Every structure is written in structure tokens, then in C-alpha cells.
TrEMBL record:
HAMAP family: UbiB
UniProt: ATP binding residues: 128-136, 150
Protein's organism: Amphritea atlantica
Keyword Cell membrane set for record: yes
Protein name in UniProt: Probable protein kinase UbiB
Domain of life: Bacteria
E.C. designation(s): 2.7.-.-
Alphabetical list of InterPro entries matching this protein: ABC1_dom, Kinase-like_dom_sf, Prot_kinase_dom, UbiB, UbiB_bact, UbiB_kinase
Family to which this protein belongs: Belongs to the protein kinase superfamily. ADCK protein kinase family.
Function: Is probably a protein kinase regulator of UbiI activity which is involved in aerobic coenzyme Q (ubiquinone) biosynthesis.
Residue span, Protein kinase domain: 122-494
GO CC, any one term: plasma membrane
Length: 545
């Protein structure tokens, strides 16, 4: 019943904001078009002066946190949405009123198993910030270190599960009613979102992600990751070192302290490529609210990252294909770009390479009419994915996260330093990474990594070789038995056929003799023609079989 009531509310919001106009340009099935025409509010409620994107954004904000975060995720899916819709959804604000301070403190004490005074010298019950999933409080440890305490919003899991069930229902309807629905896999899109949002409910996963990135950039001059206090971290509570940086979007404050903006922008690109290609573990939620800049040493600025609920990872194969795609694209080697998409399995193996190459060239060539500094890596990826979609490219979740992160980094970099040339900054890193991956050092490094395994297995090699030989011998014996059995079977079949034809030959001879019974004293010349034929056939069959 509650789900029905929720669906009714969604339908009411759908009608109020005339979201039916979003479906008019889609290639819907005939019964879906009829259903669209039968929606009576179309003839009563005016569209008004708002754009489709504005109406969709307002509707999602009215439906609440789960739909807001879903809209934020969709804003990165340029393979599913038009540019104007995606840009409007990026404006969605994930800000909700905080829940009661007393209740927040109770949740923290219940998770830690003792009053807050036992762990914190000071604890501010008034939250610093509040979002749809969690809110954050400031506190002070007894050793004088400042920390922030993040606590999951009570009852949010139940709300998420209820709204996720509704989202699945909507996705199934879209898949059934839209001609392209099955290929774009809306149910899988919702499933990816479900995994992401439920991961955010377990703060131990976020803490583990933060610890990993902190370890990857330990003592790095370009990125600082706050320390996680594991002894005070639980599934619904996270305690982390408090930082005092400048929000990266506050350009005026950064300029006021004479921050080297060019260096800051270039270091952002370096951090991205380092996480993706060196570590294969990248912060996938790098919007301005999660990035700060240290106040120390403005001439050599250092980023500070927080909120590690969403991270991405690439396989070695994806890393290699992606780097080679970038390099081939900027060398205008569209044939290689097309072939790499096929070799990686991102598009079907039977794709026409020449047609795919032509399509990529028609989309990408106009980009090179612009100065290199104006070429957007994010738009390059988007253009490639949109072109590949026409050739039945499967949705690649790891690449979607990468595209989202790259768009965030690129937008941030150009906001800090509009003249940023992303290619000039990234090309040396990619070329160096490819050489390290393919060169002699990479082979030596791989052998060095595998050496302990080889040494561990070496004492067992004689036994392994003996077992392998035994298996080969057993296999040969088995094959020999199979061949013998097959030979016997064939011989028996031939024997059966031979017996059959011998009986036919005997029958022919008996029949030939039967035609001469009227005159037992016949001579050869007096035999009837039929006797000759049957007799000859009988003799031949008996002799051959």
C-alpha cells in the first residue's frame, strides 16, 4: 500500500511538472504513444516557461533525497541524456535539514558503546553540514586533535529501500515501453545506483577507501588525505581528522592568498592521471564540495580530499586500452581508436571497423578545429561513447565513473585556470606510463613481483611435472580406449551391414533359382533374363561382403 501511495505521489509530481514532454521525442512503442496521448493532464496543465531540464530538476528535488542523488548520477550519463538535461541535473542540491542534535548524539553513543564524553574532550551537537545520507559534527579528542564525526541519518535505509523499489518499477516500464530501452539497460542503471547508495550507508567502506588513497599519496606534496580513526569508526559512524582548507570553488579566496592557480590546475590533472593509471583506484566523487586547498605554501599548493564513499577502479586491460585510445585520438589515428574499442570488447567483435572509423572521424575531426587548450578530454570521451553507442556499445560502469571524474576534474581545472591545456599536461604522463608498462623495466618489475610465487612453487615442480605426465598418460590411455571402442563399434557396424547385404545376395540367388523351377533341366542359354539379373546381383553381393 505504501508503495502504491508513493507511486501516486510520483505520478502527481510527473503531471504537475509536465514530464510527459520528455518522452515525446523518443521512439516509443505504439501502445506507449497511445498511453501518452491519453494522459488527460496534457490538455489541462500548461507547460509554462520552464525548460524540460528545469522541470525535471524541480520534480526530482520535490521527490526527495533518493531521487536527487539518482538525478546527480544521471547527470554524468551523457550516453543516456541530452547535454541540456545533463547540465541542468548537475544543479541538483543535496542539502536537507539536519535531524535533531540529541538523536544524533544518541546514535553516536550507541555505535561507540559509551557516552561521547568518554571519547571526545569536546563534542558539538550542532551539525557542521547535513546531507541526505549523513550529517557531520565537529569534535576534539583528548590529545588535542580536531576531528569530524560523520553519522548516518536514522531511518534512511528504509526510505532508500522503499524508493529503490519504485525506481526499479519505473526502469522496468521504461525498458518495456521504449524501443531502445533494452539496449540502454535502465534496470542495470538503477542497479548500479543501488550499489552506490547502499555502499554509502556503510561508513567502514568509506573509511577503507580513504585509508587506501591516503596510503597511495603518503608524503605527497600535491594531495593530502585526512587520517581515519579506525578505533572510533563503525558502520554508521566515521571519525576523521578535521582539515582547515579553502574550498576549491572559492577562487577569490585562493587568489587573495596568491595561490599559483596554473600550478594548482595542473596538479589536479596530475592527481587524476596518477590515481587512474598508477594506482587504478580513484576518487570518483570529486565535485567542488569534496575538494579543498591547503592554506600553507600558496606557491606550491596542495589539494585536500574528503568524502570517499564513491571510488572507481580499472583493470590493467582497461587502463591500457584507455591510454592508447587517448594517444591515438590526439594523433588522429581513428582506425586505431575503432580497433581498440573492438579489441577491448567495448563494442561487438563483428563491428565493421571501416564504418566505425568513419563515424568516429565525423564526430572527432571538428574538435581539432579548436586550439588544443580548448579541447575537452571529457567531451572526447563523451563523443567516443555516444558514437560507439550507435554500434551497440555495452554500458561500461567503470568507464562511466571515469568519465564523471574526468568531467569534474576538467571543469574544476578550467575554473581555476581558464588557459589550462589538459592535453599538454596529460600527454607526457600517458606516454611515460605506456613506456613504463611496455618497456624492459615493466618486464623486470613483473618478474620481480612474481619471483616469490615462483620460488614458493619451485620445490613442488618435480611432483607437478610427474602429475602432469601422469595426467597426459591417463589422457593418452583414455584416448586409446576411446579409439579402440570406436574402432570396435565401427567394425560391428560394418559386420552388421555385411550380414545384411549377404542375406540380400542369398535372397537374390534363391529368387533367381525360383524362376527356373518350371524347367529343372534348363541350360544356361535358356535362363530367363530376370534370373540372370538376380543371380548376378546375388553373386556380386556375396563376393563383396
Amino acid at each position: 500500500m505504501r508503495r502504491l501511495l508513493r507511486i501516486f505521489k510520483i505520478a502527481r509530481v510527473f503531471a504537475r511538472y509536465r514530464l510527459d514532454t520528455l518522452f515525446e521525442q523518443l521512439n516509443l512503442r505504439w501502445y506507449a504513444r497511445v498511453l501518452l496521448m491519453l494522459m488527460l493532464w496534457r490538455y489541462v496543465i500548461p507547460v509554462g516557461g520552464r525548460s524540460q531540464g528545469q522541470r525535471l530538476r524541480l520534480a526530482l528535488e520535490e521527490l526527495g533525497p533518493v531521487f536527487i542523488k539518482f538525478g546527480q548520477m544521471l547527470s554524468t550519463r551523457r550516453d543516456l541524456l541530452s547535454d541540456d538535461l545533463a547540465l541542468e541535473l548537475k544543479k541538483l542540491q543535496d542539502q536537507v535539514p539536519p535531524f535533531e542534535s540529541a538523536y544524533s548524539q544518541q546514535l553516536i553513543e550507541r555505535a561507540l558503546g559509551a557516552p561521547v564524553e568518554e571519547f571526545f574532550a569536546e563534542f558539538n551537537a550542532t551539525p557542521m553540514a547535513s546531507a541526505s545520507v549523513a550529517q557531520v559534527h565537529e569534535a576534539l579528542l583528548y590529545n588535542g586533535e580536531e576531528v569530524v564525526v560523520k553519522v548516518i541519518r536514522p531511518g534512511i535505509e528504509k526510505t532508500i529501500r522503499k524508493d529503490m523499489a519504485v525506481l526499479y518499477t519505473i526502469a522496468q516500464l521504461v525498458q518495456a515501453l521504449w524501443v531502445e530501452g533494452r539496449r540502454l539497460k535502465p534496470v542495470e542503471v538503477v542497479a548500479d545506483y543501488e550499489n552506490t547508495i547502499f555502499d554509502e550507508l556503510d561508513l567502514r567502506k568509506e573509511a577503507a577507501n580513504g585509508s587506501q588513497i591516503r596510503r597511495n599519496f603518503e608524503n605527497s606534496p600535491i594531495l593530502y588525505v585526512p587520517e581515519i580513526y579506525w578505533d572510533l569508526t563503525r558502520q554508521n559512524v566515521l571519525v576523521m581528522e578535521r582539515i582547515h582548507g579553502i574550498p576549491v570553488a572559492d577562487v577569490e579566496q585562493l587568489k587573495a592568498q596568491n595561490t599559483d592557480m596554473k600550478k594548482l590546475a595542473e596538479q589536479g590533472v596530475e592527481i587524476f592521471f596518477t590515481q587512474v593509471f598508477r594506482d587504478s583506484f580513484f576518487h570518483a566523487d570529486m565535485h567542488p564540495g569534496n575538494i579543498f586547498v591547503s592554506r600553507e605554501n600558496p606557491s606550491a599548493p596542495q589539494y585536500i580530499a574528503v568524502d570517499f564513499g564513491i571510488v572507481g577502479s580499472l583493470s590493467p586491460e582497461d587502463q591500457s586500452y584507455l591510454a592508447r585510445n587517448f594517444l591515438a585520438f590526439f594523433q588522429r589515428n581513428y582506425r586505431q581508436v575503432a580497433q581498440l574499442h573492438i579489441d577491448s570488447g567495448w563494442v561487438p567483435a563483428d563491428t565493421n571497423v571501416q564504418a566505425f572509423e568513419t563515424a568516429i572521424r565525423s564526430v572527432c575531426e571538428p574538435i581539432f578545429e579548436k586550439p588544443l587548450k580548448d579541447i575537452s578530454f571529457g567531451m572526447v570521451l563523451m563523443g567516443l561513447f555516444q558514437t560507439a553507442r550507435r554500434f551497440n556499445m555495452e554500458v561500461q560502469p567503470q568507464l562511466v565513473l571515469l568519465q564523471k571524474t574526468l568531467l569534474n576534474i576538467e571543469g574544476l581545472g578550467r575554473q581555476l585556470y581558464p588557459e589550462l591545456d589538459l592535453w599538454e599536461t596529460g600527454q607526457p604522463f600517458l606516454e611515460r606510463w605506456m613506456k613504463e608498462r611496455m618497456g624492459p623495466k615493466a618486464v623486470y618489475r613483473s618478474m620481480k613481483q612474481q619471483a616469490p610465487d615462483w620460488l614458493d612453487k619451485m620445490p613442488h615442480l618435480p611432483q607437478m611435472a610427474y602429475d602432469a605426465l601422469n595426467q597426459l598418460k591417463s589422457l593418452d590411455d583414455s584416448r586409446r580406449r576411446d579409439m579402440l571402442a570406436l574402432s570396435v563399434a565401427r567394425h560391428e557396424l560394418q559386420q552388421q551391414r555385411s550380414y545384411k547385404w549377404r542375406w540380400v545376395g542369398l535372397i537374390c540367388l534363391v529368387a533367381a533359382a525360383g524362376f527356373s523351377l518350371d524347367d529343372p533341366f534348363f541350360t544356361i542359354r535358356e535362363l530367363p533374363a530376370i534370373s540372370w539379373l538376380l543371380g548376378t546381383a546375388g553373386v556380386v553381393l556375396l563376393l563383396r561382403h
